[in-house]
Amino acid sequence: MKGGTRKRGKTWSYYFDMGTVNGQRKKKEKGGFSTKKEAEAALAEALNQYNNAGTIFTPSEITVADFLDLWFEQYVKMHCKYNTQTDYIQIIEYHLKPRFGTYKLRTLTAAPIQEYANDLKKQGLARSTLKNIILTLSSALNYAIEPLNYIQYNPVDRIKFPKYEQGEGRQEIHHFIPESDMKQILERFPESSPFYVPIMIGYYTGVRISECFGLTWDHIDFEKQTITIDRQIVKRNFGDVRDSLDKGRERMDKSEWYFQTPKTESSNRVIRYGTTLQKILKRAYRAKQMNRLQLGSHFTDYYLKPETDEKGNTIFRLFGVPHDVPVDLKRADLVCVRSDGSMISTDSFKFVCRVVRHELHIEFNYHSLRHTHATMLIQAGAPIKDVQERLGHADVQTTINRYVHDTDAMKDETVEIFDRITSVS
């Protein structure tokens, strides 16, 4: 069996014929080699392995780096949402490959994984970040056990996660916003600011940031005072998900905004809202219609172009055109826009977070609004089941563990409750 090499752009590739399967010719090709000599050497090794084992690698000899690539291509891309894929690829490339990539998969034991987990804690990583890294490795290794049968057990099952003391390590922000701080934020971003509406939607409904910035006016029912959540906005790269590793302008030039279904079925929901948000939304709706009429061709309208993702699901690419340009596609009448109709995005909102932190000295991100919303509802006595459904959680325990902030008022209420139910003195 013969093969060959060829140059593609600035790198070299090798290829060879793998024979016929079901009447179809199968060919193996791999690129990325710096020189022709490297490609030829890799070709010789691949041919030797193929001829001797009928595959491009012997499972017992595959490295962790190559296996992680295989797991990502065969499992993650086929079963995970795009944002989850980007999370995984960053953990793989920035954490797992540098530490374990050269290990043979069959030689990876609990000892080096335990050492790495301990090192991550010493570096000051938050407990949740450390767990995400190690559990990503665990998920990949479970795939190596079943269905691939490359290894017999998962070494991650034999490690102990480092213990964190109260307040130890860098903590992720799940910040409850007192009413006095909220007033300061709204003074800095009043109704004349394009960020006012998304702030108020988050505060009064507890939606996720990707849900808020994916809202269109046809998903808001003014008569019933409800918001329907059945999609989210995400930034996707033109090419492979690995392009998400690019930095700065290089990454931006490869990115587009898309609408896709929420991460979980429980995220699909209808949220009721009150009179305060109703007035805010109606004013915003009227202002957008007026701006569209007054600005004409200087106003941006957005449309949805259906495309297919890597799993065969339909997603919709968002693109803007001047108002007077006819487009034969469904219009996306976005809620969160500037006065000229141009969208504000989850990226744009990072400006708000920086201003609130550095100018107002208030710890803040969009999730703080969601966290505060849930905490205030439960503090006021709202049924936990209703809060769970409002937030789109699959179970009540998630609501309690993640978003219910134990305020001083809640602690005082607990004491008062016990005093009311006992008369022992």
From TrEMBL:
In the record, what lineage is assigned to the organism producing the protein?
A: Bacteria, Bacillati, Bacillota, Clostridia, Lachnospirales
Keyword line: DNA integration, DNA recombination, DNA-binding
Q: What is this protein called?
A: Site-specific integrase
Q: Which organism is it from?
A: Porcincola intestinalis
Q: What GO molecular-function term can you cite, just one?
A: DNA binding
Function statement: Site-specific tyrosine recombinase, which acts by catalyzing the cutting and rejoining of the recombining DNA molecules.
**Superkingdom in the source lineage:** Bacteria
Query: InterPro entries given for it?
Result: AP2-like_int_N, CB, DNA_brk_join_enz, Integrase-like_cat_sf, Integrase_catalytic, Integrase_recombinase_N, Integrase_SAM-like_N, Tyrosine_recombinase_XerCD
Q: Which family does it belong to?
A: Belongs to the 'phage' integrase family.
Record's PANTHER family? PHAGE INTEGRASE-RELATED, PROPHAGE INTEGRASE INTD-RELATED
Known Gene3D superfamilies for this protein? 1.10.150.130, Intergrase catalytic core (1.10.443.10)
